[in-house]
Amino acid sequence: DISGNNAVELLELTDELKQELYALNPITEFSIDLEKQFFIMAMRETQVTCIKQEAFRRITENYPITKQLNLIYEKEESRAEYIEMVSFIANTRSKSNSLEALVMSMDLQDLSDLDCHNDSYWS
Asked: What is the pLDDT of residues 49-102, one digit of tens each?
């Protein structure tokens, strides 16, 4: 049971275990660098997820799935609109891929400042 007082005891125990671990393995420059690298990797993963979600939002906002399916089925009758849709989706995916690649080379400050919803990345 990890509720009420038991939860508090578990948290205290966790803090005690952390202290013991730090006593056994003191914080060094290497461990700080390692934690920073894990943090940067997590930030990159978060930003990539945001970019993918934003690309999906932009595509489906302009071409909801039902509209995409209709244009695919009617591509002979509405060829120009079909080509426009395919071009828009390909362009959005290309921008998404470029932004994801950029994220992989960003430092911590740039990752923190990145707003994947900003139109400047998508225009």
From this structure: 999 999 999 999 999 999 999 999 998 899 999 999 999 999 999 999 999 999
Measured distance CA(116)–CA(123) in Å, rounded: 12
Which tokens sit at 29? 């420059």
pTM: 0.69
Spatial separation of the C-alpha atoms in residues 44 and 76, rounded to whole Å: 42
> What's the CA gap between 49 and 55, in Å, rounded?
10
Residue 68 Cα distances to 60, 65, 72, 79, angstroms:
9, 5, 6, 13
Quote the radius of gyration of the chain (alpha carbons, Å): 23
